[in-house]
Specification:
alpha+beta, two-stranded antiparallel ribbon, 115 residues, 4 strands
Length: 115
């Protein structure tokens, strides 16, 4: 947030629409030149796209419109998925996902055949 505290010349705006436009143009040009001078005075570094200026840290904290939302509890399906995920595992030998009881039976059968 910024504001220009300099006094305005009321006579410059009283000369009609053409004088008002010229005065507004002159004020805008002065403000832009001031902004550009302050921008080019900031430290900068070269980048592939051009020069990048390092802006100063913000001094005003912007308020939130609403409070930060609270984390929601998991749904029934999310709880179900967590339980089912514990029952399934990835078998390197089978190269796929299998249920733990089914996988244990296959592993016992493979070890029995090999031994």
């Amino acid at each position: 947030m910024a504001c220009d505290i300099s006094a305005l010349d009321a006579a410059a705006f009283a000369g009609g629409p053409a004088a008002t436009d010229a005065t507004c143009h002159r004020l805008a040009q002065t403000i832009f030149q001031s902004l550009a001078a302050r921008l080019f005075a900031l430290p900068s570094e070269a980048a592939p796209v051009g020069r990048i200026a390092h802006l100063p840290a913000p001094t005003t904290v912007l308020p939130r419109e609403k409070p930060i939302p609270k984390p929601r509890p998991p749904t029934k399906w999310e709880v179900f998925a967590q339980v089912r995920r514990k029952e399934w595992c990835c078998s390197v030998e089978l190269c796929s996902w299998a249920a733990m009881p089914f996988l244990r039976k296959i592993m016992v059968a493979q070890t029995a055949v090999i031994a």
